[in-house]
């Protein structure tokens, strides 16, 4: 696809590309605006009102607090903290355990069925267990995120390590490379592309589980809470605004991860974005 | 493959299976010991054997099985709808660069919206019922199938396309005769990934709705009962087993249909 999209005259085509890329979304939003205005349905407010509402709700605060309002501090920051902390823990745990498991065929064979089962369990199904164990609150939410998001990283890391070229291991044995050096110089680089594939899956799972764990009855703060709160008040404007915010947040986090991936993997994988 | 290699492969597989069984037993014994010893309160982690017995008991419970049936129905309907939407769309986007560019911003914005966040909106729009679950499952499953279709089309052998074009076949014919077959293994991998996501969403939707029938509803209600952890975990065992069976079945189908396909590489989202 990209090969066809960037012929020699790419610079001349730029206006056309831009028009195509931005044209359709702009037209779609404009049509929505017109249709919503004409129908005046409570369920589908106009985009202008949604954006305006979101702005007033979260980003019209004082300048010294980066324009965040009280509602933003109460709802957005805790959620952001949870999703980042949960994802970081899942990533670290998954990579460490994956490296440990992937290096030995025997250990991997021992753990494989248990891992496959753990991965097959839909993570939300376990959240009620965490609610009983940790009670409602941040520890329960973190546990849910970590338990749901760790498997793709763990399994991908282990498989990446297993797929390492045996020749390189022989070389490492010949030069008597120390275990720590082996991990940094051999296993990690070999597994990195698969690790990042796992991280991308984990990130979207983290976001899903963050929202899910905050939607449960009894939670008191977070983006998910503001969503249920708005739902019970039939405040559709807030529901829509939260959705737009989550879309933007997801896009932002994903772009950040892709940027890190490109840095870590260098140019040779640049064409491989999914 | 020489008979010796086949024999060695078989021996390797038998060894892995044996080790796997040992691993399962160790994990089971560890959970049992933790539950019995009292280091962890039994309300938190009931002994593994009790959970397993309860899970088997549930297999004879008609009401529970009906619930599982309802969950699976929502799962299958949502997945089928997602495929019906995503495969043609993916073929379009993958073969017409202008269409791909035009929809890119829209897709980049819609995709990262976490599907569970749609639950409040969809349940306000459609009410709480199976339509809501189906809509959520569909939304979540469209993405992996769509992206894998587009990606698979990108891997079409240019020579095959050129040859067909040289014989005077039109765009659509080239797409159907060269593009679709080469994209098919990727599409299948996308469907397999989507099937897992669909199960997550079906269960999550039911847990949050909290009523009606379904595996998620069972888990949610057991979670609220005092000392209900055993039932929750028994439900989790069922959910995990369903996920495992679905994944194994789809992997087997993929292997049979596309034995030439290399390690299916589509990573979905």
TrEMBL record, chain A:
User: Which GO biological process entries does UniProt record here?
Assistant: transmembrane transport
InterPro entries in UniProt: MetI-like (IPR000515), MetI-like_sf (IPR035906)
What Gene3D superfamilies does the entry give?
MetI-like (1.10.3720.10)
Q: Where are the transmembrane segments?
A: 18-35, 83-102, 184-212, 237-260
Membrane topology, from the record: Multi-pass membrane protein
Q: Which PROSITE patterns match?
A: ABC_TM1
The record's section on SUPFAM superfamilies has: MetI-like
Protein location: Cell membrane
Please provide an example of a Pfam family that matches this protein in its UniProt record: BPD_transp_1
Keywords from the UniProt entry: Cell membrane, Membrane, Transmembrane, Transmembrane helix, Transport
ABC transmembrane type-1 domain span: 76-261
List cellular component terms (GO): plasma membrane
Q: What protein family is recorded?
A: Belongs to the binding-protein-dependent transport system permease family.
What protein does this entry describe? Nitrate ABC transporter permease
Automatic annotation (TrEMBL), chain B:
The record lists the membrane-crossing segments as: 74-93, 105-128, 134-154, 166-187, 193-220, 232-253
Q: Quick check: keyword tRNA-binding in the entry?
A: no
This protein's UniProt keywords: Cell membrane, Membrane, Transmembrane, Transmembrane helix, Transport
Location of the ABC transmembrane type-1 domain: 68-254
Per its UniProt entry, which superkingdom is the organism in?
Bacteria
Give the bilayer topology: Multi-pass membrane protein
Instruction: Report the principal subcellular site.
Output: membrane
Localization per record: Cell membrane
Please give a single GO biological process term from the UniProt record.
transmembrane transport
Pfam families tied to this protein: BPD_transp_1 (PF00528)
A GO cellular component annotation in the UniProt record? plasma membrane
Q: What family is this protein classified in?
A: Belongs to the binding-protein-dependent transport system permease family.
The family database entries (PANTHER family) matched by this protein are listed as: ABC TRANSPORTER PERMEASE PROTEIN MJ0413-RELATED, ALKANE SULFONATE ABC TRANSPORTER-RELATED, MEMBRANE SUBUNIT
Question: Can you say what this protein is called?
Answer: ABC transporter permease
